[in-house]
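hiii so um. not sure if this is the right channel but i have a protein structure encoded as tokens and i wanna go backwards to a sequence. like what aa goes where. can anyone help
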């Protein structure tokens, strides 16, 4: 049985990085303790899509571009959102006997075991870029839920304003920021060219 190539070796084989770049990345990985893929992306040597494709090739699985797929809502909701978000994965196809799941890290054996336990189905893993998975999962978050969370947290605001530090933090967990992010994401998914907000007496449309 042939020895499986390491990620760096696969990237070189694919012509995506040079041996010099790999050596530099390995030195940085040793110093920082980060995963090799993350180091290579941070250094601008490759993209997250490149890493996903290399992982697919290394593991002999398929790579999927989620933006090119049409996944129905029922399929997306077959797994709990928190499980998908925590493990950076999304279901893309369901059959009576199995399920195809796109993962940013197809080597995550613990996540695979969890999926089998939850679904009771055989799982086939494919690789996908993490940003594409995040974009797909964003469509599962209910805007009504986000609005409700904002109302519940309103007591924490001062003079009905969102704290400035939350606005500055693009990754903030503040419900108001999450709502805005969700609205923008949904607009992108729906192919909207612009957004309009019209305040009403007791509502906004």
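sure thing!! here u go:
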């Amino acid at each position: 049985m042939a020895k499986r190539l390491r990620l760096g070796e696969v990237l070189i084989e694919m012509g995506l990085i040079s041996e010099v770049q790999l050596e530099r990345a390995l030195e940085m990985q040793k110093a920082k303790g980060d995963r090799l893929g993350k180091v290579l992306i941070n250094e601008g040597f490759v993209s997250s899509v490149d890493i996903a494709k290399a992982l697919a090739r290394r593991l002999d699985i398929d790579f999927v571009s989620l933006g090119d797929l049409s996944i129905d809502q029922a399929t997306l909701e077959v797994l709990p959102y928190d499980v998908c978000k925590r493990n950076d994965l999304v279901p893309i196809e369901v059959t009576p006997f199995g399920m195809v799941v796109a993962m940013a890290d197809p080597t995550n054996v613990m996540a695979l075991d969890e999926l089998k336990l939850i679904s009771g189905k055989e799982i086939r893993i494919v690789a996908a870029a993490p940003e594409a998975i995040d974009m797909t999962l964003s469509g599962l978050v209910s805007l009504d839920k986000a609005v409700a969370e904002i109302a519940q947290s309103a007591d924490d605001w001062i003079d009905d304003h969102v704290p400035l530090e939350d606005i500055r933090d693009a990754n903030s967990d503040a419900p108001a920021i999450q709502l805005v992010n969700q609205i923008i994401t949904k607009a992108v998914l729906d192919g909207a060219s612009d957004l309009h907000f019209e305040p009403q007496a007791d509502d906004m449309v």
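oh and The two ends are 62 Å apart (CA to CA).
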